[in-house]
Amino acid sequence: MNSQLSPESVAGGRRRSFVRPLFFVLALLIVAVAIFAWTVPARSATIPTMSISSVVTDTTVTVQTHNFPANQNFVVTMGPFGSRGVNGIVVGTTNSGVGGSLSATYTIPAQLKGSGQIAIRMQTTHAYPYYAYNWFWNNTTGGTGGIPGYTGIPTFSIVSVDPGKTVNIQTTNFPPNQAFTVRMGAMGSKGVNGVVVGTINSGVGGVLKATFAIPAQFQTAYQVAIRAETAHANPYFAYNWFYNNTGSTGGQPPPVTLPAPTYTGVPTMTICGVAQNQTVTVKYKNLPPQQAFQVTMGAFGTQGIGGYQVGPLNSGNGGELTATYTLPPQLIGVSRIAIRAQTAHAYPFFAYNWFWNTTATVC
């Protein structure tokens, strides 16, 4: 017996044959999107920075980048000192290429010529961009103009300390024939507006040694800042600090005076690993010794300022340390998290970074 299908049954069969393939296509798309979202690699959480290499007054500035991400287009802007270059005048675009360190020179825009200090910024155009900023004195530091043959910046190191009495310093790369006023001040002040303790005439420049008396106000201070600066409107300057170590001689042999430990640079932290919604492991570098840090986490973009406390950190002998912290309940499920370590000083040591809240091992 031959069966027949009604027009309605045939139409229905056609609808089923069309819907099923469409359903499978949509399902495959959803699976593909889910796999892609799951396999997005963790973004490096290191921070790009830049330093000023040289300046030709009202003409150009040359910068050196550090730790730049690869294959990113950075828009370069300049603006008034204090603006960090935000919404500044566009002076160029630089592609970071293989990343890391690169040197680039930019023309100072007409609107900023004559300025004593200028801010410069490099930033990508992402919603959450990579960026770095700095500022520079708008006076020549290269071999043309200014002091012929002088490049770079002056610095000095601490050679030794006679506690409560004197400190010996050694300069490096001081410009020739310059009169520096030397000041001391509270730790963290960088010696700005400090107590005048003497002068240095740089003579032929370069390496010099000098000894300065510690003023009465700081003879019992644990740490003291020291600064050398010329009197120019756009001065040469260098600063450092030292431990004003003290010892008792009552009933004991005279103590041996050792060179005081010196700390230079800034502490940093790198994200080494994340267990999603559980922990983050960080590696500190260049920590100052014997300092108590409080570690906080907060929303992305806050730099961890005012965040949730997740633990203390004692820097011990300083240098490199690795530590793991538990994410606070308030940040569980948040995609990006800021983390900060900071001391309680009026002018604190601090380091900060951020990470994707996705399980990953970076270092």
Any key phrases for this structure?
four-stranded antiparallel sheet; Coagulation Factor XIII, Chain A, domain 1; 3 domains; single chain; 363 residues; flat; mainly beta; Immunoglobulin-like; 42% strand
What report would you give on this structure?
- The chain has 363 residues and is mainly β.
- Helices cover 9% and strands 42% of the residues.
- The protein is built from one helix and 22 strands.
- The chain has one helix at 7-38; strands spanning 49-56, 60-66, 73-80, 89-95, 103-107, 117-123, 131-137, 155-162, 166-172, 179-186, 195-201, 209-213, 223-229, 237-243, 268-275, 279-287, 292-299, 308-314, 319-326, 336-342, 350-356, 360-361.
- It has a four-stranded antiparallel β-sheet, with no helix packed on it. The chain has a four-stranded antiparallel β-sheet with strand order 11-10-13-14, with no helix packed on it. It has a four-stranded antiparallel β-sheet with strand order 19-16-15-22, with no helix packed on it.
- Strand 3 and strand 4 (89-95) form a beta hairpin.
- It starts with 6 loop residues before the first helix and ends with a strand.
In short:
The chain has 363 residues and is mostly beta strands. The protein has one helix and 22 strands.
Number of helices: 1
Please state the overall shape, judged from the principal axes of the Cα atoms.
flat
Report strand %.
35-45%
In CATH terms, the superfamily of the largest domain is Immunoglobulins
Structural class, please? mainly beta
Instruction: Return the CATH topology of the largest domain.
Output: Immunoglobulin-like
> How much helical structure, as a percent, in the residues?
under 10%
